[in-house]
Amino acid sequence: xxxxxxxxxxxxxxxAAVSLYVLSEATEVFAAAAAPTVDVGAASDYSKDxxxxxxxxxxxxxxxxxxxKIYAVSTKCTHKGCNVNPSGDHFKCPCHGxxxxxxxxxxxxxGKTDTAMFHYGLSTDANGHLIVxxxxxxxxxxxxxxxxxVAVAGKSDK
Length: 158
What we know:
The protein has 158 residues and is α+β, with helices and mostly antiparallel strands. The chain has two domains: 1-34; 37-151, Rieske Iron-sulfur Protein (3-layer Sandwich). 21% of the residues lie in helices and 32% in strands. Strand 3 and strand 4 (69-74) form a beta hairpin.
């Protein structure tokens, strides 16, 4: 077997990287389709207003408590689908710098987007746990739909 030259090595490494990316995306799609609901714990676990980032990496949403409501906000930028990151009291897109308020509304679209991130369906089960339903998506005009949030009593611990 002959040795690989530099150009062949770079081409092979690139092809392997693309293959791994495609496989990881396919795995993510199949996992989401197989289990559209996620138990994110008891509502009492979210006693403070703000963004809880625990679920972002695996499930692509954040749990947010604000003004007596808890909701699940998609963490996909509405410009090109990059995963946004919490940055204090808001989200920021690492790809082009757009900023979203904690509820997913536009803070500064940076000239790239004027569309808010969507909310997922949210409910409580018999044990008082919050259940996110990723098969139900609510655009900003539907955020007042009772299926898109869980109301919580009492003041936030801020």
